[in-house]
Design goal:
The complex is a heterodimer. By secondary structure, chain A is mostly helical. Chain A is about 75% helix and about 0% strand. Chain B is built from eight helices and no strands. Classes of the chains: A mainly alpha, B mainly alpha. At the A-B interface, helix 1, helix 2 and helix 3 of A face helix 1, helix 2, helix 3, helix 4 and helix 5 of B.
Chain lengths: ~100, ~190
């Protein structure tokens, strides 16, 4: 029997993996990939809640609309973020997060 | 969906996710992320969210991953070799992740909602055709009476019926994003 709890645990583990990656990795592109993973984990939780909160015998489509918005924002964010990474690489010749310390004062 | 398939796809999602976090070569990480998203899309399909599953494959595993690979190959990023690992960051990252996972397992295990199963909450397609109120367009009710779930139509109805303004804001966001990318990637003229 697969319950909502199973989906929530998978979603939570995927989010934790992404969080660990964001904190531990130093390659800025991989940090970005881990951010995408965290967004997708949130989507999984939303779709899970949508399926198990039936309204009139159908899944709750408000949650799935929110997932649609999240995916759109994530796609826009990736495009802008990768453009920033390219600009950063042009000035630093590196994608290491520790090469960017100008704001450290 | 049989439990075995759920565990298989959960394993694909989490296993390739782990490979993204631990991989040394950025191209390996990007391909592992694509595989992880395919597993996630299968989990969406198992939750009767066919539209979201297809969008996940098209947008994430398709467009976003191609963009990542394109940037990795454009910048010609090599495998990180010989660099010493940042031990304190790794320890704190793993510790936070384990704590968060344990917390979510505790919370998800202890509620009534979380113990609902897919078989225990079946969709009532034919019944809902008479109950869905404003969404009762002929194309939606006919699909429901035929016993299929028109979820793309229902999401579309929800979006345009209740969230029309938000949809326009998202459109504006994409426009601003497009302009921002063009401005960012334009090579600056040499400073005077």
């Amino acid at each position: 029997m697969i319950t909502l709890g199973h989906y929530l645990v998978v979603s939570g583990m995927l989010f934790s993996l992404g969080l660990a990656g964001v904190i531990a990795r130093r390659n800025i592109i991989i940090v970005y990939m881990c951010l995408e993973m965290m967004l997708s984990a949130a989507n999984l939780a939303l779709v899970g809640f949508s399926r198990f909160h039936l309204t009139n015998g159908l899944p709750d489509y408000t949650a799935q609309s929110l997932v649609f918005f999240t995916i759109t924002v994530a796609a826009a964010e990736v495009a802008v973020g990768l453009a920033i990474i390219v600009a950063l690489f042009r000035s630093k010749q590196s994608v290491d997060v520790e090469s960017v310390t100008k704001l450290q004062g | 969906m049989p439990p075995l398939l759920f565990y298989l796809f959960a394993l694909i999602t989490l296993g390739f996710g782990f490979l993204v976090v631990t991989g040394r070569n950025p191209v390996t990480c990007a391909l592992a992320l694509a595989a992880s998203f395919v597993g996630l899309a299968a989990l969406f399909l198992s939750l009767d969210a066919y539209f979201i599953g297809v969008i996940q494959i098209l947008v994430y595993a398709g467009a976003v991953m191609v963009l990542f690979l394109f940037i990795i190959m454009l910048l010609d990023i090599k495998t990180e070799e010989g660099k010493k690992l940042n031990l304190s960051a790794i320890v704190s990252g793993v510790l936070l992740a384990v704590l968060l996972t344990l917390q979510i397992i505790m919370v998800a295990g202890g509620t009534d909602l979380a113990s609902k199963s897919v078989q225990g909450t079946p969709l009532a397609l034919a019944d809902s055709a008479t109950k869905i109120g404003r969404a009762a367009l002929p194309t939606i009710t006919n699909d429901l009476k035929a016993g299929t779930l028109p979820d793309a139509k229902l999401i579309g109805f929800t979006l345009f019926d209740q969230y029309g303004f938000h949809l326009q804001v998202i459109g504006l966001l994409l426009l601003v994003g497009t302009i921002g990318v063009v401005v960012l990637s334009k090579r600056e003229r040499s400073a005077p």
